[in-house]
């Protein structure tokens, strides 16, 4: 018997709210998303914050890289809905004991923030979440560092690279799954695919019973999935 494909709300619900905003995450929690996907950086004073880009330019009226600001300085540059750039701590408090999975991406493929893995994982461990957090990154070294800190956690590699033998790669790197930007045949139970917004692509993937997808429109994805995977 197949498990239902998990649908992760990619950066919350950006079709309606600013991406990576607490407002968008709360909407996804309240409306039945299976999981939340979010991105974590460190400020100049080593505070974990949630934003996709290394720079604040696209999603605020400020300019510059996150790691060049203290968190107090970042507060001057709110998101489009007036929220301050979310603290990881506040996000974890929002999630609390809700029945929802979390996919935390270490945004370390362009800037490898020193110590981010330990800082973030310690903070996660301080919260009594219902499910273990899925840790992912495009930067394999970040996952290696995290694995040394706690080999018992769930680690997944984000990639556009196509592997001749993806199962062998997963085993070699001690991963739980791949998070590819494409459908990889033969590892349906070990892949969560990003970022799927096209309804026709959703239908194909749901018919193949992939483990999960990341989407900017979890509401549409849930409707399509529930028609196919009854």
TrEMBL record:
Residues 5-225 form the GP-PDE domain. InterPro entries: GP_PDE_dom (IPR030395), PLC-like_Pdiesterase_TIM-brl (IPR017946). One of its GO terms (molecular function) is phosphoric diester hydrolase activity. SUPFAM superfamilies: PLC-like phosphodiesterases (SSF51695). Pfam families: GDPD. GO terms for biological process: lipid metabolic process. PANTHER family: GLYCEROPHOSPHODIESTER PHOSPHODIESTERASE, CYTOPLASMIC, GLYCEROPHOSPHORYL DIESTER PHOSPHODIESTERASE. This is Glycerophosphodiester phosphodiesterase. It comes from Acetilactobacillus jinshanensis.
């Amino acid at each position: 018997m197949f498990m239902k494909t998990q649908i992760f709300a990619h950066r919350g619900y950006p079709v309606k709210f600013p991406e990576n905003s607490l407002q968008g995450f709360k909407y996804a929690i309240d409306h039945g998303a299976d999981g939340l996907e979010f991105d974590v950086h460190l400020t100049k004073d080593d505070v974990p914050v949630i934003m996709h880009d290394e720079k604040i330019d696209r999603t605020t009226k400020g300019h510059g890289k996150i790691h060049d600001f203290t968190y107090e300085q970042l507060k001057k540059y709110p998101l489009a809905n007036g929220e301050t750039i979310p603290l990881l701590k506040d996000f974890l408090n929002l999630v609390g004991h809700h029945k929802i999975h979390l996919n935390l991406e270490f945004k370390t493929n362009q800037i490898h923030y020193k110590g981010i893995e330990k800082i973030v994982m310690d903070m996660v461990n301080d919260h009594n979440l219902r499910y273990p957090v899925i840790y992912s990154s495009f930067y394999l070294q970040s996952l290696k560092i995290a694995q040394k800190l706690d080999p018992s956690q769930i680690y997944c590699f984000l990639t556009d690279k196509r592997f001749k033998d993806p199962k062998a790669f997963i085993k070699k790197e001690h991963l739980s799954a791949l998070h590819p930007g494409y459908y990889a045949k033969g590892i349906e139970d070990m892949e969560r695919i990003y970022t799927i917004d096209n309804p026709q692509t959703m239908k194909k993937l749901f018919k193949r019973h992939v483990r999960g997808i990341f989407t900017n429109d979890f509401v549409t994805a849930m409707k399509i999935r529930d028609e196919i995977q009854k």
